[in-house]
Amino acid sequence: MPVNTRRAALRIISEVEEGGYFNLILKRELKGMEEQEKRFTSALCFTTLENLRRIDYVIDAFTKGKRVHAFVRNVLRLGVCQLLFFESVPESAAVNESVKLMEKSPKRQLKGFVNAVLRQIALRAGDLPYPSREEEPALFLSVMYSYPLWLAEKYIREYGMDFAEEMLSYKKEGADTCVRRNARKVTAEQWENKLTGAGFAFFKGEYSPAAWYIRNISAVDQLGLYKKGVLTVQGEASMLAVEAAHIRGGEAVLDVCAAPGGKAAYAAEFGPSRLVAQDLHPHRVKLMEETFARLGVQAETRVADAAVPIPKYYGAFDCVLVDAPCSALGLLYRKPDIKGNKKEEELAALSAVQREILETCSRYVKPGGRLLYSTCTISRQENGENVDWFLERHPEFAEGRLVDHISEKLINRAKGGRIQLFPHIDHIDGFFIALLEREGEKQ
Ligand SMILES: C[S@@+](CC[C@H](N)C(=O)[O-])C[C@H]1O[C@@H](n2cnc3c(N)ncnc32)[C@H](O)[C@@H]1O
Q1: N or C, fewer C-beta in 10 Å, the chain?
Q2: What does the pLDDT look like over 49-77, one tens digit per residue?
Q3: How many whole angstroms from 327 Cα to the centroid of ligand 1?
Q4: For residue 128, is it within any domain?
C-alpha cells in the first residue's frame, strides 16, 4: 500500500485526537483514492481508534512510561495497530512504513526511536504484558477493549465480569445500514423493487416491521432514494421505541426532544391528527425541518427547552415522546472515535436533566394517555432508576404492557413497561424504552 494511505491515516487520527469529527475528516481524506486504498486507510484509522487504549498501553510498556511527543505517538499507534491487528501487513512493512512517516517530519531525528520501539513490540507480539483478567478485571477490560476504566468498573458492578466482558468486547459485524421505508412516498408492494432497482443487496430487520438493512453503502445522503425521501436512515432500536408508544390514528402526539426528527417522522406514519416536534437547539430544529421536508411529514416544529413547562400543553396530548439527551453508551460499540472519551460525571448531570424533563412533560399527557421514555444508553442511573424515581412521585402513572407493542422475539426481555436492549445480545443499538400510562378514561 503506498505511503500516501498511511500519511492520510496519520492526519486523520491526529485531527480526531484534537477533537475533529472522524467521519468528516475520513471523507475528506479518502477523496480521490483508489478503492483498495480507501478500504485500507479506513480500516487502519477505524481499528487504531477502536483499540486506542490497548495500543497506548503497549506503547507505554515499551517506552517505559516516558513522555512521547504527540506526532511520534500517532506514528507509533498506526504501526502498533498494524502489528497487532493487520495480518495482511508483514511486520517489516508495518515497521518500515512507520519509519518512512517520520522521515519528512519535524521529528525525523526520532526515527531510530520509532524503529527500535516497533521492532521490540513485533518481537513480543504474541506475549504482550497486558493486565491480568483475574487480578485486575476492570483494568483488563478497559485495556483489552479500549473503554474508560470507570465504565468497565461500572459494568462489572452492575452486570458481573462475564456479562461486562461480553458487552465491551462486542463489535459490529459487516457494514449494513438500517433504513425505513417512507410510506408517504412508496407502498409496501413497490418497496423491494425500488431497492432492487437501485442495485442494493438488502434484508429485513429482525424486530421491527419497518426496518430494512442495505449492505455496504456509504454516503447515504448522496443516494437518489434518500434525496427523494423514499427512505430514511434510522436505527432499528429507535423504530422500536416509536412502535412501543402504539400511536393510533387521530391522536395528538408531542415529541419534546425530537431533532433530527427520526422518531417524530416515524410517529407521523401512524396518522396522528396533530404532531408537535420540538428541540432545545435551533440548528437541530432546522435539521429536523429538513428531514420533514424531505420525507413529506407535516408537523408543528418549535425550539423549546423540554424542562420548562408550557401550561397550554397541560393534558393536551395522547402521547408524549421523551427521547431524552443521554450518555449514548448504547452506541459506543460502533463509535470508535468517542468510546474512549466518555466522562463519568456526565451521567449524573444527564440523569438530573432527564428527571426534570420527565417531570415537566408528564403534565402534558391526557388522562388515559402515554408517556414514552427512551434513551440510547446502558446506564441504570439514566434508565430504570429514573423511571422508578418518576413512578414513586407520580402514582397517577403506571407501567404499560410493553409486551403488547414489541416484537415477539423481545417479549421475554421486557419487564413490565420497560426493556433494555443490548448490542451484544440483540445486535442493535443499546436502547432503553419505558412505556408509562396515565390513569383515567381516554376521552
Ligand atoms: C437522543 S436525541 C433525539 C433524537 C430524536 N428523537 C430522533 O429520533 O431523531 C436528544 C435530543 O434532545 C435535545 N435536547 C437536549 N436537551 C434538551 C432540552 N432540555 N429540551 C429539549 N431538547 C433537548 C438534543 O438537542 C437532541 O436533539
Answers
A1: C
A2: 999 999 999 999 999 878 899 999 999 99
A3: 12
A4: no
Are 88 and 218 part of one and the same domain?
A: no
Range of the domain at 36: 3-123
| Ligand 1 within 6 A of CB of 325 | yes
Q: For residue range 395-411, what is the model confidence (pLDDT) as tens digits? A: 999 999 999 999 999 99
Report which ligand 1 atom has the smallest distance to the Cα of 288: 9
> Does residue 131 sit within a domain?
no
**CATH (domain of 17):** 1.10.940.10
323 is in an annotated binding site: yes
User: Is the Cβ–Cβ distance between 247 and 264 less than 8 Å?
Assistant: no
Same domain, 256 and 204: no
User: For ligand 1, is residue 258 a contact (CB within 6 Å)?
Assistant: yes
What is the tens place of the pLDDT at every residue in 143-154? Answer: 999 999 999 999
Nearest CA to ligand 1 atom 6: 258
125 known ligand binder: no
Please tell me the number of Cα atoms within 13 Å of 140 on its side-chain side. Answer: 12
pTM for the whole structure: 0.93
CA of 186 from ligand 1 middle (Å) equals: 28
Catalytic residue positions? 376
ipTM (interface predicted TM): 0.99
DSSP 58-122: HHHHHTTT----HHHHHHHHHHHHHHHH-TTS-HHHHHHHHHHHHHTSTTGGGHHHHHHHHHHHH
Distance 18 CA to ligand 1 centre (A): 26
Whether residue 261 has its Cβ less than 6 Å from ligand 1: yes
Any atom of ligand 1 within 6 Å of the Cβ of 79: no
C-alpha cell belonging to residue 67: 513522555
Residue 113 lies inside a defined structural domain of this protein? yes
258 is in an annotated binding site: yes
CA of 322 to the centre of ligand 1 (A): 9
Residue 323, ligand 1, Cβ within 6 A: yes
User: Which residue in this structure is represented by grid cell 420533514?
Assistant: 292
Burial label, 33 (beta-carbon count in 10 A; 0-12, 13-18, 19+): middle
209 among annotated binding-site residues: no
Taking alpha carbons only, the member of 216, 256, 274, 443 closest to residue 357 is: 256
Per-residue model confidence as pLDDT tens digits over 212-242: 999 988 778 888 999 999 999 999 999 999 9
Q: Please give the single-letter amino acid code of residue 356.
A: E
Instruction: Give the 3-state secondary structure of residue 380.
Output: coil
Give the total number of structural domains in the chain.
4
In this predicted model, what pLDDT tens digit does every residue of 158-199 receive, in sequence order? 999 999 999 999 998 777 999 999 999 999 999 999 999 999
